[in-house]
Amino acid sequence: MDLLVGQLFTGLSTGSILLLAALGLSLTYGQMGVINMAHGEFIMAGCYTAYVTQQVVGDAGVSLLIALPTGFLVGGAMGLILETLLIRHLYHRPLDTLLVTFGVGLVLQQVARDVFGAPAVNVTVPQFLRGGVDLLGTAVPKTRLFILALAIAAVAAVTLVLRFTPAGRRIRAVVGNRDLAETAGISSRAVDAGTFFIGSGLAGVAGVALTLIGATSPTTGQSYLVDAFLVVVAGGMGRIKGAVVAAIALGTFQAVFETYSTASLAKVGVFVVIVVFLQLRPQGLFTLRTRSLA
Amino acid sequence: MLRLRNLTCGYGRSAVVHGVDLEVGADEVTAVMGHNGAGKTTLLRAVVGLVPVMSGTIEFDGEAINRKPANRRVRAGMAYVPQGQQCFAHLTAGENLRLVADGRKSGRALVDAQLDRFPALRGLLSRQAGLLSGGQRQQLAIARALITEPRLLILDEPTEGIQPNVVAEIEGAIVDLAKGGLSVLLVEQHLGFALQAASRFTVLRSGRVASQGEAGSGAVERVREAMAI
Questions:
Q1: Domains of chain B in sequence order
Q2: Residues 6+ apart with CB under 8 A from A85
Q3: Nearest alpha-carbon partner for B92 in B140, B48, B44, B126
Q4: Do A163 and A171 contact (CB within 8 A), yes or no?
């Protein structure tokens, strides 16, 4: 029983990390269709934002609170620059976008290596997040609970913005029908830039959170990229709800497989599950149904 | 208000519309007719900015707008209702309207005015637009266009594929709007309605003007002859 609760919570926790990493991608890839291979490096930029903030501020608790919004701005600004300078000119050319952003990712990794050095750096976990909480007889690390809460808050914020604000309506309109949005007086360029800013900013937030559970190196982000894409595809393109369910499911599979084998074998197991799932349901978990062609 | 001079436009390098001259005056309805594939929709899409101009000019209020992005043409006073009852399918009907009202002065009043024009929409505001019937979606599309307070309304086959009782309602709304002083550029296959609503007509054949004139006596014969029916 303890083992089960422990593994389920580990699954939920792994899922929440996956979700944080994938949430921004579900906007830029899921909604806009941009294959941004540099998304992982935006996560990495968030990690280093946390590191730099802590070097400057000193107090681990205060620096974490400052780093979360700063990470959003840093990731968002990087995304905005990438969108304006490169991606904007490559819409409808997915393969070129993939190659260009992959190159940008490599450049960013090298920049990180030059600035911060190749060895991993550590961010001190604030006092109030050290230790664990007893949950049904299992010790659960507070950092993991914090990340879970952050993931829930991020999903709620994105959902509320998309559903209830004018900017959210415009994003959904441009995603749904770009030409029609233009002829409804909406600047699809401005909306694209804004969406990309938010999506990349969320990667930055994810990066800040990840420093609580691991060391930061120039390749930190890359290791999350494939998982993030898997979550978005398995969840159904552009469906936040799908990303949530897929992230938790993948996290749980991973945790359960790990109980009975090793981490690497568990990864193989997860891939097999996804391959089989996408054979049966290529459109992902959730899809949109409409009567009109548009 | 709108003047096309020697307009050639199309997709990629292949022109679809060749050297078309056309005018919509203030408070005037101009109908564009022609068979499928004659270039009517491409012409309209060029006017609103979705298809690039290859040569010639599009003038709106005396200003050449060839390179103006579509969204700025809307702000300049054009509104476009595309073919096929297009709406933002996964937004609710209400969101479809609020989307265009956002950021406009008295946006709520603008939405209300259109709901008075199409009362059937009132009960459907919380429904997903993609699940509405064709007629409902077309009313939604026209309402959405009118919220932008256009001076020129561009309609592409507004009654195509819509159940007959709603067709009458939509035709009535178009005639009312024209009487109210709105300029209209109308693509319409249905000759009777087109020539009744319009003061001028243009018939396109293979992307070129086959016939053009005032919609008075004898117009029906000229249009039929140009369309070879």
A1: 2-227 (3.40.50.300)
A2: none
A3: B126
A4: no
More confident residue, A287 or A191: A191
pLDDT band at A124 (very low <50, low <70, confident <90, very high): very high
Closest Cα in chain B to A173: B88
A166 CB within 8 Å of a chain B CB: yes
A183 touches chain B (CB under 8 A): yes
pLDDT digits (tens, 9 = 90+) for A191-228: 999 999 999 999 999 999 999 998 999 999 988 898 89
The model's pTM? 0.87
The alpha carbon torsion through B10, B12, B15, B16 (nearest 10 deg) reads -50
Rounded CA-CA distance B164/B214 in Å is 28
CA–CA gap between residue A196 and residue A79 (Å, rounded): 6
Instruction: Answer yes or no: are the C-beta atoms of A38 and A82 closer than 8 Å.
Output: yes
Report whether A188 contacts B88 (CB < 8 A): no
Q: In angstroms, what separates the C-alpha of A290 from chain B's closest C-alpha?
A: 5
B6: left (phi over 0), alpha (psi -120 to 50) or beta: left
AA letter at B117: R
Phi, psi of B155 (to 5 degrees): -120, 130
Euclidean distance between CA atoms A160 and A247, whole angstroms: 20
